[in-house]
Amino acid sequence: MDATPAAHLVGRVSALLRALSGVNEAGAGTAELARATSLPRPTVHRLLASLAEEGFVDRDRRSGRWFLGPELYLLGGVAGIRYDITRHARESVHRLAALTGESAFFSARRGDETVCLLREDGDFPIRSFVLYEGARFPLGVVSAGLAVLSFLDDTEIDAYLAGRDLVGRWGQAHAPDAVRERIAQTRIDGYAVNPGLVVEGSWGMAAAVFDHAGQPAWALTVTGVETRFRAERRPELGALLLREAHALGRTLNTGAGARR
């Protein structure tokens, strides 16, 4: 059945807001958002103008760049009462940053993507800035997305890799066979490793956090420069990630954490 015009419009608006949520504090231009959503530029501009009237997006008058608006902040505060799980993850992220000296993160799966919700930097002075709060990546790209993808059912993995072109944006290292090799290694180790495949020299490691149904719903990550992720150190980092992921999973699936 074809989607109704209203559903079609909602889908376009949703795609636009998601794209805007994935940019950093510099905002995004109209053409940039058009490319990200595969929508015509005039359509994107028209939708943004309508959203701005309602306060869902905001535009800097000098630069012309777009940002999420104050109305979303207010709505998010209300929704956070029911859905915010970052308060449970914050301690795990803090411990990982403190113990490793690297940048630590907590991400959540949203459909075919992971969204970074928390970041805390350790005391090592050189950092990677691939991940930041609000950043979205397809499953199988950064280490968090690889950790989540690796522990999905094989049928779901097959369908995802068959229907998603990761090579066009992320390069040949994200061809299905290459991703499958990393999935196999992640299942052996229990944690995922991204050896600088998104930005050269910027490494990441992640462990999946499972929900009450045993599905990988979140991930804990540490990132840093390549020299901090040498082979002799990776098992130590992996053990820390798995320990925190296991403890956080227990917390999220009991009491208040399970009512998300």
UniProtKB/TrEMBL annotation:
GO BP term, example: negative regulation of DNA-templated transcription
Keyword line: DNA-binding, Transcription, Transcription regulation
Top-rank taxon: Bacteria
Residues in the signal sequence: none
Domain IclR-ED: 71-254
GO-annotated molecular function: DNA binding; DNA-binding transcription factor activity
All copies of domain HTH iclR-type, residue ranges: 7-70
InterPro entries, A to Z: GAF-like_dom_sf, HTH_MetabolicPath_Reg, Tscrpt_reg_IclR_C, Tscrpt_reg_IclR_N, WH-like_DNA-bd_sf, WH_DNA-bd_sf
Entry keyword Lipid metabolism: no
Pfam families tied to this protein: HTH_IclR (PF09339), IclR_C (PF01614)
Matches recorded under SMART domains: HTH_ICLR
Protein name per the record: IclR-family regulatory protein
Organism: Streptomyces flaveus
